[in-house]
Design brief:
The complex is a heterodimer of chains A (about 350) and B (about 70). Chain A folds into 2 domains: about 220 residues, Aspartate Aminotransferase, domain 2, CATH 3.40.640.10; about 120 residues, Aspartate Aminotransferase, domain 1 (Alpha-Beta Complex), CATH 3.90.1150.10. Chain A has 10 helices and 10 strands. In chain A, helix 1 packs antiparallel against helix 7, helix 7 crosses helix 10 and helix 8 packs across helix 10. Chain A is globular. The N and C termini of chain A lie far apart (about 50 Å). Chain B is α+β, with helices and mostly antiparallel strands and about 70 residues long. Chain B has a single domain, classed as 2-Layer Sandwich (Translation Initiation Factor IF3). Chain B has a 4-stranded mixed beta sheet with strand order 1-2-4-3, with helices on one face. Chain B is globular and about 30 Å long. The relative contact order of chain B is 0.26. Classes of the chains: A alpha/beta (about 350), B alpha+beta (about 70). Chains A and B meet through loops of A and helix 1 and helix 2 of B.
Amino acid sequence: MRVLLAAFEKGWAHPDGLGEASSQARHLLNSAREEIAAALEVTPGEVEFWGEPALISPMAILGAPNFSHGNFVAGATERQDILAMGARAHSMSIIPVSHEGLIDRDLFLEAIESNSTVALQAANGETGVRQDLADLSALTGSLNAQLHLDYSAAGPLVKLPAYWSTADFPAKSWDGPSGLGIMLIHRDHRWVNPLTSAIARRSPGSYSLPLVLAAAASLTGWIDDSKKESERIRTLVALMRTVIKQTIADVDIAGSGAVNQSLPHILSISFLNVSGEELVSRLAREGFAVASGSACIASAIEPSHVLKAMGVLTHGNIRISLLHGVQESEVKRLLALLPGIIEKLRSESGL
Amino acid sequence: MREIDCLGALCPTPIIQLGKAIKDIAAGEVIILKADDPATESDLHAWARMTGNNVISLAEHTYKIIKN
């Protein structure tokens, strides 16, 4: 919050304007761009700021050369808004994933042509499953297809592979401010703004400079924090996987949890014969805020397409995300409460 | 052969009804489940994997479950 307030004090002027305040704003913008570029290991010229983070992936994909007359290739667990881009392509291949959530490599390779646009997620936001980006991006590059990478769940936890064309990094992915995202455009990529009225611009330019400054200021600290916290949090998630399997019958856990195949902080579990909505509600009463991929919650109509694609049970699902600073005592409290809650819910349904 | 009609019922009711019914039948016996909740088909296959039983889709919203 302090960072954000300072950013609003310093960055109020328009960087394109005349005068000292604008000159200072320009300097601050350039410094922020350099700081973010260094942290993400790209060049400053590859960094574009967007004030509408939700539009970054769709626009990056739409602006890929050949998108509209090539085959669009995406994994079955990609974000719904990315999968929806297939309707605008010449053709689309949705690549199935294994029970562990990993893209079928052979089918992936079969689907790509030189004029293809490929969309891959560095990691899935619901399950934490990480794709083998090094391998899949190399395959894409070997065929000279365009590759868009979705980093909305992984953020800076996962490095960019050697080959990429565009990438989507919302500032929220490093606990930065909402309402700001980064579109990375590789210097060798011929991205064209699909909005013909803005064809010469690489971003709408409607981002908030104070949010850019706050995002840059928070990024390096978050990366340093992650280096210390990731291993500790991963150990807590591994503890949850083990204890839940030992203490509760009939559970389905999404993803293998292997270090190179998972984000450290996300755990998605489904409990057979339990309503996801009831479970979320009972946990909220105990002070735990969790999300759910089930259709049996008030805000959902369909079950999670991610869990379906993996063949994981979709009902009775909760998604736990551990934040930096989470206390081991809280994790243990959850583990102590869960068996009783599940038993009660199952018995209330007559099982 | 037992038939369970869960048309119109929302998840997890179809799976819960199946779970109750399957306790009362012997190995090799069959239950026909009718359910149109969008989670049913996918969850039936997950349920079969988790419980060691078999599921076959017969028609839209109609499933044959064979107890192992």
